[in-house]
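User: What would this chain look like folded?
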Amino acid sequence: MMKKYVIFAFTIMLIFSAGFFQACMKKADTSTGQSDKAPDSPVKKLKGMEIKLEQYSVSHYLVLRALEMNGMKETDVTIVNTPGDEAGQLFLAGGADAVATWNPHLFLAEEQGKGKVIFSSKDIPGEIIDLVVFDREVIEKNPNIAKAVTYAWYDAMEYFSDMSTKEDAISIMAQGAGASVVDFKKMLEGTNLYVDPTEASEFLNSDTILATERKVKMFSKEHDLIQTDVEISYNSSYTDDYIKNGGIVDNPAATGDPTEYKVGISIWTGWMPFWIIQEKGFLEKRNKEFGVNVKLEEYKEYMASVESFTARNVIGCSMTIMEALQPANSGIPVQAIIVNDISNGGDGILVKK
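Assistant: Here's the prediction, encoded as structure tokens.
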């Protein structure tokens, strides 16, 4: 019987699982913003309120950062654990006074006059970075697993950036996200995708991503979200290989590893290119070239995929830096090989007007 592994794509965040929060950072989507410490800051009005959010996710981190930057503590509010997408839907339906969620819920609430975004990833620039991470030990044994996923990812980036196929790419992603094309284009405005592999490689090798990790790690330790001084490693070699070869595999594998490896994916603007990969058969093509058998598996709830990776039931996933710290805290050698995007307003806190 063939062994099965699951690979998940996660945003690097600190995950709160069994008592601690995953702090993850996203590169594919970068947040830019500034501190709001004014006495009349709308964040201060959260005091005493109930906030629906996905506990121990990047939304939880966002709220904690907003409170901290305004001289407040988590005890000043009541957190109600609610999946992020569900929280956004509840807000739009009038079932919540305050939520932490993401687009399209953020801009839909403002457009419909139902709410106002009082804090977003723009206010903590560069702290929410989306990555694809793996168990380093697994891909060191068979680098072709990582190569197949990386090459397929940049096939999707090329399809998205090519003006002759861009609209089709957006249509595929919008359909996967359950959004209209018009709304998905607005979602892209709050997400800075790393389309250029050269820029992505440079970022993975930059002091910036390390500085962001240190910032998130320090915050997480101060809030007892992680208990050890853990580290995430960053490896641009698979992206560099794609760049060097121009995406071409000159000597396809004659035989390979028949083991089925699964990559877990979930709905987030910066990860929707995975739907292009599926629709256009990019991963199937790269599997044949590299002699591996990697499959994409969608998870309806993002944190479920994170928890599965943390439990070592899968070998990779997409997550933020914050969340990636949690499996690292559990002893998994977490290595980020692809930077997807950086959230630039795509995550935020909504309150009723």
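The chain has two domains: 4-16+127-346, 42-124. If you want, I can go into more detail on any region.
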